[in-house]
Amino acid sequence: MIIPSADLFASFDEVTQELLDKLGHALLKPDKKRKHDKTYSNVEAGKLLGISESYIRRLEREKEGFPKVRRTPNGKRLGWTLEDIHKMRDILGYNPSRADTPVRVACANFKGGCGKTTTVIYLAQRAAQHGYRVLLVDLDPQASLTSTFVSEPNSPIPQNATLLPYLEGECAAEDIQPMPSYWPRIDLLPANLELHGAEYILPLRQREEQDKGYRLWALLDNVLAEVESGYDIVLIDTPPSLSYLTLNAVWTAHGMVIPTPAEMLDYISTSLYFRMLSETLFELERANARMEGYSDEDIPENLRKSHAFVRILITKFTGTSSAKEIETWIRMTYRDYVNTNVMLRTAQIESSSGELLTAYDRTLRKSDKTLMRAVENINSVMDEIIERAIRPVWFPEETEKQVEAL
Q1: 150-176, pLDDT tens digit by residue?
Q2: What is the pTM (predicted TM-score) of this model?
Q3: Is the dihedral of CA 338, 239, 281, 217 positive or negative?
Q4: In Å, what is the CA distance from 11 to each residue of 1, 5, 18, 22, 217?
Q5: What domains appear along the chain, each with residue ranges and CATH number?
């Protein structure tokens, strides 16, 4: 018997949701909110604060209002929570410097599985460890970023919590409100499957409302102008396609991180992505110029889109001879735009994602050398992006000018 495909796929969805519900209840009790409850040692806290372990102990003993280390009932030291470390920052005045304007970063590539969401997850958590306040924007209807950061994974994301009502014209930009995540200093504009409807709604509204100045590529810019106050960094996760949602991310971003594995098909795919992105941005610039009264051949520079930085990040690096060869090609092609540090492919990253955890959620023990190496690698990659790409947007004098490589 041949089953109509729509019915077959609906049955697939039904049994999958049943299994996910069971898994969700196994991972987290329905009435319990998830928290980042990892404890940090004095050494880890000292590295994040830039002070010595002995100085932390001294402050704990002598400074009024300083957090007290968490202990077991029998008095054994457990360590500090990230909230404790943030309180130390506030007391010591060690919060990171920043300018008034948050830096918006889009993580994009139209090939799935290249590490976009993983990059956003770890960049957000590493920035939060350093004391930055981070807003995550999930534009991918698959909502993997949302599933990772929501406090209650068992609870569905209502449509009115996503950007879709604004994209449909049913609410104003200022009505969109981020939700807290399970990580301190990270908030979230979530996604769900219904967000895919934007791909049909936006071009329709562009045709109907163009004479009113409607710009389908600038809608996210309108939302962020209303909600980003109070954040230091805005990180945008995009769908694995050059969709209207992705174009919004690219258009509003101050900088871009483009993950690509060191594999032949990914190398080719990324080059095609740059071609499509270039052609599409040219078309958006022309459309933008026409709406401002300019001709296609006379686009002023201030109406052209420029990014303060573009970082190509090699992800899922295995260290094999073929991966090293493709890495060489990537560096020869894109030169100074390629991140120096590569994101290694590790079992810790892959196993953690299956448990709705990250490597940063796990307590570091000296005996777990594999986890320590994975975290050290993640730290080096994310710190490079923060220090050499994001911070120079605020403080250009902190780094050498980016060399024009192409």
Answers
A1: 988 777 888 888 999 999 999 999 999
A2: 0.90
A3: negative
A4: 15, 10, 11, 17, 36
A5: 39-92 (1.10.1660.10), 103-394 (3.40.50.300)
